[in-house]
Design brief:
This protein is mostly helical. The chain is 54% helix and 0% strand. The chain is elongated, with a radius of gyration of 24 Å.
Length: 155
């Protein structure tokens, strides 16, 4: 699969499941771990996941360059000065492309399996290389509501 988590790493403190059980013992120890306790409580706040994600977007470089995304956003009438918004759109486009290509791969595997099962003595190689064909891509995009047709070259 092409980049399932896109390199974004979430901190383990937010989902550690410790809750507030360790807060009273940390305060009673003279405040030595008070900073960690406050940080744990802040990271479990409802909006902290979004703010952490937006901070991680500043360091992340998506496959689609910011200039390309900005160009198409500007063509659509959206002018964004914040690079995090542009990277968020780039990340969404990257996820969409990844899903379409993954679906096209599944269509290709199904088509290849059907061709091999119909022929006697079909190839059973596990290390088979797949080629992205227009037919597979057309079927995958049809699942997302995008109609793709071949151009008529006779015009």
């Amino acid at each position: 699969m092409v980049g399932s988590n896109f390199g974004i790493i979430y901190s383990g403190s937010a989902g550690s499941g410790q809750g507030n059980a360790g807060t009273s013992s940390n305060v009673g120890q003279g405040g030595s771990n008070l900073g960690a306790t406050v940080e744990r409580e802040r990271s479990s706040a409802p909006g902290s996941h979004l703010s952490d994600f937006m901070l991680q977007l500043e360091d992340y470089t998506p496959l689609i360059p910011d200039t390309v995304t900005s160009h198409y956003l500007n063509m659509g009438g959206f002018h964004a000065d914040d690079k995090r918004i542009v990277r968020l759109v780039s990340l969404a486009a990257q996820k969409y492309i990844s899903d379409v290509i993954d679906d096209a791969l599944q269509h290709s595997k199904a088509r290849t399996h059907m061709q091999n099962s119909n022929t006697p003595g079909g190839s059973k190689a596990k290390d088979r290389k797949f080629t992205l064909t227009m037919e597979d891509l057309q079927q995958a995009l049809a699942d997302y509501g995008v109609n793709v047709r071949k151009m008529d070259y006779s015009q």
